[in-house]
């Protein structure tokens, strides 16, 4: 399912710094230094220690990191799985790699008996909105509508609005 | 085990904003605005949605939030549990509340067959270091020693050094 010359594996703790290192580049510096710090704080090492079996890393033939997906199984709702953070090398966008990573996660979540996958994105990230919608995610109703899309104000804290997605497995 | 007049319960999604609201006050504004944002980003709503069964909130007789513990069971290492974030109202420090919250988590982790609890703290937080040591946590060996304590440089990302603890259950 993953493209030719690419290898898929579960992450290890020491991969965290590699992932952080490519994030600024891949995100095109979105949000400046504050955005960079936000992304680092959203990916503490604990994800690379304790949620590795439901997370994926993709490397190319030169061992370069070209994609990753960090996800977990909900411990509260045994029907739910959650995708926390996904990144793909801009050179491989539109290659189907992100879609493949999501499909790998969907398969794994199904194997664990999960019936739904949740994830969120920033309202400013229109590429992400289009991607998730194309993959079959629905936008959950929020408290306000911005540019025709339901948004959850202060979802992750004051000023941290989010679009909330859910997809049936 | 929790003090008189206090109620212990598992958190709900809507508790996240309440927790964030008290954090700056309880932490005494440590780290200024950047510190405030760091704390908020370390507690995204997902913890209040998907890891509630291993997390705790404490309220007093007036429904005021006076303490919380956010923890989870490792999905990678089925012997391990992890305490992610703990806070106690400064007016209740030295009351044994933090210790009780940890004991509640230890009991729960044991019930789930876990044999070890992990957590981390910032090297500058000497109160936290003393607290964890008194509770039986050991400092894991790092790559450098700062003020006589092993520190893991760049543990959570560039410039985010941490002390790493482990305690046998």
From TrEMBL, chains A, B:
Which InterPro entries does UniProt cross-reference here?
Answer: AcTrfase_GNAT_prd (IPR017255), Acyl_CoA_acyltransferase (IPR016181), GNAT_dom (IPR000182)
Q: Which UniProt keywords apply?
A: Acyltransferase, Transferase
| CDD domains (alphabetical) | NAT_SF (cd04301)
Q: What is its EC number?
A: 2.3.-.-
Where is each N-acetyltransferase domain found? 6-156
One of the entry's Gene Ontology molecular-function terms is: acyltransferase activity
Q: Pfam families in the record, alphabetically? A: Acetyltransf_1
The protein's name is: GNAT family N-acetyltransferase
């Amino acid at each position: 399912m993953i493209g030719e010359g690419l290898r898929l594996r579960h992450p290890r703790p020491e991969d965290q710094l590699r992932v952080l290192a490519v994030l600024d580049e891949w995100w095109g510096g979105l949000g400046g230094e504050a955005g960079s710090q936000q992304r680092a704080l959203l990916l503490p090492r604990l994800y690379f220690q304790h949620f590795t079996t439901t997370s994926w890393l993709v490397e190319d033939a030169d061992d370069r990191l070209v994609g990753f997906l960090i996800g977990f199984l909900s411990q509260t709702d045994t029907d739910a799985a959650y995708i926390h953070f996904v990144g793909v090398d801009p050179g491989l966008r539109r290659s189907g790699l992100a879609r493949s990573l999501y499909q790998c996660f969907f398969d794994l979540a199904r194997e664990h008996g999960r019936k739904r996958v949740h994830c969120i994105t920033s309202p400013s990230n229109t590429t992400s909105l289009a991607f998730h919608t194309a993959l079959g995610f629905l936008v959950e109703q929020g408290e306000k509508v911005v540019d025709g899309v339901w948004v959850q104000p202060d979802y992750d804290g004051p000023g941290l609005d989010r679009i909330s997605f859910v997809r049936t497995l």
